[in-house]
Amino acid sequence: MQVKPATPRAVQFIIKVSKFCNLRCSYCYEYPELGDKTTMTHEQLDRMYEHIADYYASLDEPTTVKFIWHGGEPLLPDPEVYWTTFARQREIFGPIRVENTVQTNLTVLDDERLRLLKEGFHGVGVSLDLFGGLRVNLAGKDSQDRVLANIDRLRKAGVKFGGITVLSRKNAGHIKSIFRFYERLGVSFRLLPLFAGAYPDQHAGYEITAKETLEAFCTIVDLWLQSDKNLTIAPVTDHVRSVIRYLTPGMPSSFYSRRAWETAVVVNTRGEAYADAEAYDPDHSYGNIFTTPLRELFASANREKSLRASELRMAASCTKCPYFGACSGYTKGEYVETFADSPRVGDILLCTVERGLLQHIEKRLRETGLYGDPARADLDRLRAERLTTEDPTLQALSFAG
Ligand code: SF4
């Protein structure tokens, strides 16, 4: 009998290769560092690869290691930097599967960079807000026309890409046009609510509330359900899957735990590693991945602090949520909400957008008549089991919401 190989688990390393950027988008959380030309060296990248490869080679289960190249603008360095480092990855990682994707503002695109996007990277994310005029260059000029022209070049060259649209008060009123734009192109996209800025009041004038964000997401759900195009729209289509799981008896449950599996690590330009939720907070740095083996970073006291914070966020929001188990709680585990209008327990903002979105999707799916009552008993039993194995602090907090 042939044994089916286990599906590899994935881990992402978000690489801040350099903060240097040719744009000055108003909301950028890297704003104070966008003029800094410091770039990771090949020696530093090699040390990082060695530490990552050693760790995942020592595990019993196969792992896909995904590098997400971020900046600043990661396409400003000479493309040769990437060809060289991809070759080093092949040498250092050996049989471990490695993928590289890049998130670019797509304002600089010559033939060499086009070839790099087509043949070097496994995926390309293009930042594009479509409305609002917040993505400007040093002189304050909107970069959008140039990005749209370069999107045409990507399409003509057959480069597959997705869009990343930051949702702010400046473009939330145009959500239908944003959906139609991507639908017309047949391009999947991520709708990313505005997140904390680099300094207080950075977002004054275009800050978005949880209520406005939820309305925009619900509109996207309705448009997606009516559309003939099967676009993937993060986070909406993931949540549709969660609600189908919730409404379908006997579907397996899943509960997110970073303690069980680290899904994403942010690596800052000088090598400091963090969970996404606490990126750049020195009190939560796991340590330096250029100089320290990954196993030691994962065993650090600061990582333990970060894990506890992730578990407390989930305990405060998820353990009393009817969708927990169908929704894994990943969003609460990995992201710190900053909406001023979200309810809170102590310092922790409770889940409003995700849960509201799941409720809206449930309502829409029930209207189809395809779904009856959810398999409540299974979920309740699993949640109860989980609570009895958790730390008492978490249990106490879970009942505070
Ligand atoms: S509280 Fe939010 S993140 Fe947690 S399970 Fe419910 S919907 Fe998902």
Automatic annotation (TrEMBL):
Q: Does the keyword Ribonucleoprotein apply?
A: no
**What Gene Ontology molecular-function terms does this entry list?**
iron-sulfur cluster binding; metal ion binding; oxidoreductase activity
Sequence ranges assigned to domain Radical SAM core in this UniProt record: 6-234
Q: Which organism is it from?
A: Polyangium jinanense
Q: In the UniProt record, does the keyword S-adenosyl-L-methionine occur? A: yes
Cofactor names: [4Fe-4S] cluster
Q: Which Pfam families is this protein grouped with? A: Radical_SAM
Alphabetically sorted, this entry's keywords are: Iron, Iron-sulfur, Metal-binding, S-adenosyl-L-methionine
InterPro entries linked:
Aldolase_TIM (IPR013785), Elp3/MiaA/NifB-like_rSAM (IPR006638), rSAM (IPR007197), rSAM_sf (IPR058240), Sulphatase_maturase_rSAM (IPR023867)
The record, for CDD domains, names: Radical_SAM (cd01335)
Q: What is this protein called?
A: Radical SAM protein
The family line of this record is: Belongs to the radical SAM superfamily. Anaerobic sulfatase-maturating enzyme family.
